[in-house]
């Protein structure tokens, strides 16, 4: 009888210890999941911040180009329209769905294409290429594009 009681107490003790371990693991798993989710939100915030930085550079770039050259009006309009479209789309980090991300990326892609056309056309204007303000803005835009790539890579890794 004493042996049966000792075995029963041992089994109950083992179950209690095992339950405690499982409970601790569940709490750690939940904390880890929350930390990962917060990391993804922070990385997405960095992506949006870098895209906003690029959008903020565009009005200065467009006005510098307008002031320096008798520029193709349609090119400037397409950049301005693409910027307006891209800045209207906001993706809440708490609600990151593939559809919303795709919509955001499509608008940003259109803006990238419009900027690419603008920079290609500027090659035809030597005075513009010599303008310090334009060169500075072009360098800032290039740096911002690099930041966007890094922040997108970080977001994808998270």
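^ structure tokens above, recovered residues below v
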């Amino acid at each position: 009888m004493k042996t049966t009681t000792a075995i029963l107490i041992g089994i109950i003790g083992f179950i209690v210890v095992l339950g405690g371990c499982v409970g601790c693991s569940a709490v750690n798993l939940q904390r880890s999941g929350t930390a990962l989710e917060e990391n993804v939100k922070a990385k997405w915030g960095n992506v949006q911040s870098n895209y906003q930085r690029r959008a903020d550079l565009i009005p200065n770039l467009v006005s510098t180009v307008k002031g320096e050259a008798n520029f193709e009006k349609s090119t400037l309009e397409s950049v301005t329209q693409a910027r307006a479209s891209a800045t209207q789309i906001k993706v809440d980090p708490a609600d990151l769905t593939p559809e919303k991300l795709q919509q955001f990326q499509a608008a940003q892609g259109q803006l990238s294409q419009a900027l690419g056309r603008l920079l290609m056309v500027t090659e035809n204007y030597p005075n513009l290429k010599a303008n310090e303000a334009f060169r500075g803005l072009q360098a800032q835009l290039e740096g911002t594009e690099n930041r966007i790539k890094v922040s997108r890579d970080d977001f994808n890794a998270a």
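The helical segments are 2-68, 73-88, 98-122, 126-130, 132-157.
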